[in-house]
Amino acid sequence: MKMETYKQTGEKAGTIELSNAIFDVPWNPDLVHQAVVIQQGNQRQISACVKGRGEVRGGGKKPWRQKGTGRARHGSIRSPLWKGGGVTHGPTAERSYKGKINDKMRKKALFSALSEKFRQNQVVVVDSLQIAEAKTKELAQILGNLPSGRKNTLLLLPDMRKDVIRASRNIPYLRTVQAREVSVLDVAAATFLVLPKESLQVLEKTFVH
């Protein structure tokens, strides 16, 4: 399976052979959805937390006697009926949204998402990605030359390119990830994938072999 590659200037540079194991996998929306939900749940932080009636201070003594006062009967000021009392059925720190997915399913979901991007012509392979210095303007110009344009883009790097990462920080529509660390959530959240030829080798080495 072949696809065209591009130079940084936007001109066509030739063709390259893609791995069928990565870019020719049937679309499986249920598996992709499951993998995305699990990853989002694992990233979720529990911030909202309230105290129940057993956790608030005070309330060890009955506020007033049971009968004879003319007021409603109460046993503790910790009751949810009282101001400052515990909260009924409120969010607690014991909640957990974490889930598990085995490696085989995770890789298959990733390959399915990558293959669908390829079928939708949303994958752009660059012959070589080099910038003279870590300047946002230079990287933005390169992206503007490519078929992806200035749209929601995920740039897969073959290794830790600090100059490219620094140049990408002020580009709102661009996110950079090393190819060996890419996830199905990264792919699903992007409209276009842009990757140098070296990144294809990293993908195959990391996830296939």
UniProtKB/TrEMBL annotation:
InterPro entries membership: Ribosomal_uL4, Ribosomal_uL4-like, Ribosomal_uL4_dom_sf
Region Disordered: start-end pairs: 52-94
Biological process terms in GO annotation: translation
Biased composition (Basic residues): 59-76
Example of a GO cellular component annotation carried by this entry: ribosome
Keywords noted in UniProt: Ribonucleoprotein, Ribosomal protein, RNA-binding, rRNA-binding
GO molecular function ontology, one term from the record: rRNA binding
Protein purpose: One of the primary rRNA binding proteins, this protein initially binds near the 5'-end of the 23S rRNA. It is important during the early stages of 50S assembly. It makes multiple contacts with different domains of the 23S rRNA in the assembled 50S subunit and ribosome.
UniProt cross-references to HAMAP family, sorted A to Z: Ribosomal_uL4_B
Family label: Belongs to the universal ribosomal protein uL4 family.
NCBIfam families registered for this protein in UniProt: rplD_bact
Subunit text: Part of the 50S ribosomal subunit.
Protein name: Large ribosomal subunit protein uL4
Organism: Candidatus Wildermuthbacteria bacterium RIFCSPHIGHO2_01_FULL_49_22b
Lineage, broadest ranks: Bacteria, Candidatus Wildermuthiibacteriota
Gene name per UniProt: rplD
